Amino acid sequence: LRLIYTTTAVQRKNVGASGPEKYTEAFIKKQIEEFNLGKRHLANMMGEDPETFTQEDIDRAIAYLFPSGLFDKQARPMMKHPTEIFPEQRKIQWGEDGRPFHFLFYTGKQSYYSLMHETYEKLLNVQKYQDQLAAQDLPPRKEKRNLAGSRWLTKIELEEMLLEKLSDDDYSRFIQLLQKLMTLPCGDIEEKHIQKFCKEVPAQLQKVVFEPLKYDERGVAFSTGEGTRKTARASAIVYDNGTGKITVNGIDILHYFPVLQDREQLLFPFQFLDRVGKHDMVCTVSGGGRSAQAGAIRLASAKALRSFVTEKEVEFMRQAGLLTFDPRVKERKKPGQEGARRKFTWKKR
Amino acid sequence: DAKLLSEPLSHPDFFNVKELFSLKDLFDARVHLGHKKGCRHRFMEPYIFGCRLDQDIIDLDQTMQHLQLALNFTAHIAYRKGIILFISRKRQFCHLVESTARECGEYAHTRYWQGGLFTNAHIQFGSGVRLPDLIIFLSSLNNVFEPHVAIRDAAKMNIPTVGVVDTNCNPCLITYPIPGNDDSPTAMELYCKLFKMTIIRAKDKRRQSEIFDELR
C-alpha cells in the first residue's frame, strides 16, 4: 500500500455534500427551553409580567433593545419560537428493531405515495357508491361545487405539506387524480379529503366603491375626488348645475394655467362625458410643477365625476385612462453614467 | 429463545401451508393460463404443461410444489420477524398489493423503482437502515416488459426472493419462483390472500410461542 500524497484541500471534508444540517430532537428541545427562559428574562428586563408576555411584546422589546436600520426584515435581530426558526424535518423513520414505521417506506417518497394510495381508495369508494346507486336505480346526485373561487395547492405548498421533494410529473399526476375524483358525479362524498388540497382565491376584481352624491346647503349635488401626479397633490369638488367655471386655489384657471395644454388636461374628463358646461369645479392643489398639477387635478375631477355618471360610462372612463394613477416619476441618476440613461461619451482611444 | 427459533426448522411444513390452497382453487383462479407461444421465455419451458391454440398452459402440479415451498419460506421469515417487501409493477393491482401489505403489517413498493434503493440505501434513506429480508414479486416484469431491477439488486444484496413468474418472465435470479399467471385479477387476489394468510399465521404463532415461553 503506497501512501498517495494529497493536499490539505483534498483532505478537508466536503461539509456541503452532507446536505442541510439535521437537528436532533434533543437539540430542538434544548432550544425551546432556552427560548422560554430567555422570554422570562426579557419580560423582567422590560419590567413586565413574565407570565403574560406574548410574541408581539417580544418583538416590540427586541426592536427597542436592538434598533436596526436594515431594510430586510429578516436580517434584523429576531427572537421567535424554535419551531418557527428551524425548518421542520423528518425524524428517524424506523424503530429500535430496524423495522420502518410506514408501510411504503421502501419506495423513497412515502408521504407522497401514501397520499396517492388514499386518494385512489377514495376514488374506488366513489365508484362503488355510484354502482350501488345505479343498482338501486336512483339518479346520481348533481351538486355543483364552486370552481371559480378555489385553486389547487401549488407544488411548493404540497412539498411543504408532505416534507418531501416532488418532481413535476408526480405533482401533475396527483392533481390529475384529484380532478378526476372531483369530476365524478358522486364526488361530493369525499369533499373533506379534497378540501385539504383546495385554496380559496380572493376575488381579484374588488368593486371600487365610489361615494354617493352629497348635497350642500343650497340643494346642489356635489362630490369630491383626490388625485396625485409626480409630487403634486390635488383635491377637487365638482358641483352640479353649474356653468363650467373652474377655480384652482381660489384663482381662475385662465390665470393659474396660462398654457393651453394644462387647461385642456383639466377639461378632458368633462369633454369625454359631454358635460363641459354642466359642472362647476373648485380645487386645491399643492406641490409639483405646472404639468404635474394639471394631471393631478384631472385625476381628482375624474374620480369626483364617477358619482354623477352610470357604471358603463365609468368603465369607459377607466378604459380611456382617466381613472388610472400615473406612476411615472423622475428616474434617479446612476453612478458611472451622466444621467438616468445617458452614458458618458464613448471614446475609441 | 434458541429453541423458539430452531423448533420450526425441524418440520417440513411447520405452519401447515398446504391446507391454504388446492389444485381446484388454482384452476378456478385461472393461474394456469400463460401468454402466447411467441412470448414464451426459454427458461420457463420446464414449467409449461403444454400449448393450446398458441396459448401456453402452466403445469399446476409443479406450481403447487413451488407455491408450497414459497409459502413455507415466507412463513419462516415472518416467524423470525423479518421484513417482507411486496413488489409489483402492474398498475391494475397496485392498490390491491399495497392494501395487502398494509393489512399484514409488512411493506410494499408498487411504484417507479429509483436506481439505488438497495445498493445505495445508506445514502438514500439514512445511515442505520435495515433492508428487507424477503422480497415477494407478484409480477416480476416492469412496465416495459423487462425483468424488474429489484431482482438483480436483491441478488446483489443477498436478499432471498419469492416471485410469481409468468411464461414471459425470466425465473433465473429468483430463489423461490412460482410459475403462474400474473395478469388475471382472480389470480392476483388469490396470491395476495395466500401470502396475507401465511404471514398472519406465522406472526400469530410467534406471539403464541413467546407467550408460552414467558408463562414457563
From TrEMBL, chain A:
- What's any GO biological process attached to this entry? translation
Pfam entry (one): Ribosomal_S9
Its domain of life reads: Eukaryota
Q: Does the keyword Mitochondrion apply?
A: yes
| Segments of this protein annotated with the region Disordered | 330-349
Give the residues annotated as coiled coil: none
GO MF, any single term: structural constituent of ribosome
GO cellular component terms? Answer: mitochondrial inner membrane; mitochondrial small ribosomal subunit
The family line of this record is: Belongs to the universal ribosomal protein uS9 family.
Name of the protein this chain belongs to: Small ribosomal subunit protein uS9m
Starting at the broadest rank, the lineage of the source organism is: Eukaryota, Metazoa, Chordata, Craniata, Vertebrata
Automatic annotation (TrEMBL), chain B:
Chief localisation class? mitochondrion
Q: Does the keyword Nucleotide-binding apply?
A: no
Per the UniProt record, one Pfam family is Ribosomal_S2
Task: Give UniProt keywords alphabetically.
Answer: Mitochondrion, Ribonucleoprotein, Ribosomal protein
Gene3D superfamilies in alphabetical order: Glucose-6-phosphate isomerase like protein, domain 1
Please give the function described in this protein's UniProt entry: Required for mitoribosome formation and stability, and mitochondrial translation.
Q: Record's Gene Ontology CC terms?
A: mitochondrial inner membrane; mitochondrial small ribosomal subunit
SUPFAM superfamilies for the chain: Ribosomal protein S2
The protein's location, in the record's own words, is: Mitochondrion
Q: Which organism is it from?
A: Nipponia nippon (Crested ibis)
Q: Which InterPro entries match?
A: Ribosomal_uS2, Ribosomal_uS2_bac/mit/plastid, Ribosomal_uS2_CS, Ribosomal_uS2_flav_dom_sf
Protein name in UniProt: Small ribosomal subunit protein uS2m
Sequence similarity: Belongs to the universal ribosomal protein uS2 family.
UniProt GO MF annotations? structural constituent of ribosome
Q: Which PANTHER family match?
A: 30S RIBOSOMAL PROTEIN S2 PROKARYOTIC AND ORGANELLAR, SMALL RIBOSOMAL SUBUNIT PROTEIN US2M
One GO BP annotation is: translation
